[in-house]
Amino acid sequence: xxxxxxxxxxxxxxxxxxxxVSAEGLPVSKYLEDPEHKNDILGFYLDAxxxxxxxxxxxxxxxxxxxxxxxxxxxFSKIDARISRLKKEGHLSAEMTVDSIMxxxxxxEYPCR
Length: 113
Prior knowledge:
The structure is a single chain. The protein has six helices and no strands. The protein is an all-alpha fold. It has one domain. α5 (75-89) crosses α6 (98-109). The protein is globular, with a radius of gyration of 15 Å.
């Protein structure tokens, strides 16, 4: 079953590679241009990254991050909350990327070490 899911994900990424690549390193300013999150490619990319990190974390001995991906909270909502917090604290910069926000979420909210 896991091999089948991995095959589907890889096939989808290859088919959409020209669009997915543009999601990597996406500046926060560009992310904020779509407040309703209608970009399905970006949503797929973000969910895939969080799920991939979750799978890799499960195999890490000991795990790097202490969380269970429940699927209840979307990647968009996690990122939106973090961006909002960084704005309030005055720590949001023009150079920040969505990838760096995702790592910030993992390091700040789910550290095991």
